[in-house]
Amino acid sequence: MPLLTPALGVTALWTFRGAWNEYILPLVFTMTQPALQTLTVGLAGLKYGVGDAAQPQLMLAGACLSMLPMIIVYIFANKSFMQMTAGSVKG
Q1: Rounded CA separation 55/49 (Å)
Q2: What does the angle CA 24 – CA 72 – CA 22 come to, to the nearest 5 degrees?
Q3: What is the percent of the chain where pLDDT is above 70?
Q4: Res 87 pLDDT > 70
Q5: Is 79 left (phi over 0), alpha (psi -120 to 50) or beta?
Q6: According to the 3-state scheme, what is the secondary structure of the chain?
Q7: Alpha carbon 36 to chain centroid distance?
């Protein structure tokens, strides 16, 4: 099990990233309920809003906020992420 820990940490990190960046499923499931939309769908709505001009300042602020959870998860998984490549370089 100790040798499996770094691989599990990296797998958890990649799985979280994939779920956090999901766009299509939340868009389909929340079409009729805009109050339940995820951050990714809301950011795309700022760019492709009906009858509205794109608002780059709000899109940039939302993109910065959407990166925070991924950075926090990476900080906690950093140790196991670095252990995956610990023995890969000779010399």
Answers
A1: 10
A2: 5
A3: 82
A4: no
A5: alpha
A6: CCCCHHHHHHHHHHHHHHHHCCCHHHHHHCCCCHHHCCHHHHHHHHHCCCCCCCCHHHHHHHHHHHHHHHHHHHHHHHHHHHHCCCCCCCC
A7: 18
Rg over CA atoms, the chain: 18
Residue 91 has pLDDT above 60, yes or no: no
Tokens at residue 21, please?
A: 């960046």
Cα–Cα distance, 91 to 79 (Å, whole number):
22
pLDDT digits (tens, 9 = 90+) for 6-28: 788 788 888 888 888 888 888 88
What token pair was written down for 68?
């925070």
